Amino acid sequence: ASTIVGPSGHVVAFEPEDNNLACFRRTLEKGPPNIKLLSLAVGERDGTMTFDRRGGAFSGRLVAERNAAFDAVEVQVRTLDRLIAEGLPAPNLIKIDVEGGEGSVLAGGRQLLAHGRCAVLCEMHPGNNRDGVNRAFAALKDAGYQMTLLRGGTITDPLDTDGTYHVLARQRSTHSPR
Question: What's the CA gap between 49 and 75, in Å, rounded?
Answer without folding.
Answer: 6
